[in-house]
Specification:
Elements (H helix, E strand, L loop, with lengths): L1 H13 L7 E12 L2 E13 L4 E10 L6 E10 L4 E10 L2 E10 L2 E8 L2 E8 L5 E2 L3 H7 L8 E9 L4 E15 L2 E10 L2 E7 L5 E6 L4 E6 L2 H5 L6 H8 L9 H14 L29
Parallel strand pairs: 9-10
Antiparallel strand pairs: 1-2, 1-15, 2-3, 3-4, 4-5, 5-6, 6-7, 7-8, 10-11, 11-12, 12-13, 13-14, 14-15
Helix pairs in contact: 1-4
């Protein structure tokens, strides 16, 4: 309870009310370790047309009691995905961390709070550096686009520590993941390898942290992702502006379509073509006039 109250205060202080933006993706994913459902992730990507900004909002909850861990992120980038700012929070047991970072003139400035310890960061950002949360959209916007057998080398900022790392994303051939066509991408970042399954719209259907045994899987509804993991509507409202519906993704759309088809009444004469409609009547030739 104390942990949840602390995080609510942190988020309330850091995150302003949401601006109107077009939702590009929003979904709930369950986090699995081995065969155990240990947590959930809520992710939303938006584009704010007036300011021409991309927005990434992220919430992670895993574990219970002493092992409970919460992370949140709110990140902004311009239309070219050049970083503007981000706010990151984490709470693991009694250990808290907050990063408030801003970018201007190719320089990152920010404050890092580890518990009661406060430190400041200021560093030059090499051209082309972006926030790691926007990797998929950078790939979509690249000259090659998101396509099979492509190698993307990049350098990005890890939001959880404010440092810059080199990365590589190898895109394999399209394959079927949980019934959906997707690109299998091997990403190496911070010396960690993980697989992502991403469709042509840039929607992440699942991930696999290789060597750690941690898997995430995009699901059709919030309850399937959350299960019996601790849940706070107030935290989500503070971060997202409202509790996310999580329905702006292919998995949810497909589930709703199947449900609608299953519940549709069987066709009948009454539901067919209305009487007198759909009947084609050929034009009759005019009667030839006789001469005088």
């Amino acid at each position: 309870m104390v942990q949840r109250l602390c995080l609510t205060i942190l988020l309330t202080l850091m995150f302003a009310g949401p601006a109107h933006a077009d939702v590009l993706f929003e979904g709930y994913a369950k986090v699995i370790s081995g065969e155990e459902h240990i947590g959930y992730v809520i992710s939303r990507y938006e584009f704010e047309p007036k300011k021409k900004q991309f927005i990434s909002t992220y919430f992670l909850k895993t574990g219970k009691g002493p092992s409970e861990t919460t992370e949140s992120l709110k990140a902004y980038a311009d239309a070219d995905l050049t970083p503007i700012s981000y706010e990151y929070t984490s709470l693991a047991g009694k250990e808290s961390k907050i990063i408030d970072a801003k970018f201007k003139g190719g320089t990152l400035t920010g404050v890092i709070k580890n518990g009661t310890k406060v430190s400041r960061i200021e560093k030059k950002i090499p051209k082309g550096t972006f926030l790691s949360t926007f990797l998929v959209y950078l790939m979509l916007k690249s000259k090659e686009g998101l396509k099979s057998e492509t190698n993307y080398e990049y350098q990005a900022i890890a939001e959880e520590d404010g440092a810059i790392y080199k990365g590589q994303a190898l895109v394999g051939k399209e394959e079927i993941y949980n019934g959906f066509k997707s690109f299998k991408i091997l990403n190496t970042f911070k010396d960690i390898k993980f697989l992502s399954y991403v469709n042509e719209r840039g929607e992440v259907l699942g991930t696999n942290a290789m060597g750690q045994g941690i898997v995430t899987e995009l699901v059709a509804n919030p309850s399937e992702a959350i299960g019996n993991i601790p849940y706070s509507a107030s935290l989500l409202k503070t971060l997202f502006g409202k509790v996310p519906a999580g329905d702006a993704n292919v998995v949810t759309r497909n589930a709703k379509l199947k449900a609608a088809e299953a519940n549709a009444p069987a066709p009948s004469k009454q539901m067919g073509v209305p009487q007198g409609q759909g009947i084609i009547i050929k034009a009759q030739p005019e009667t030839e006039k006789k001469g005088n």
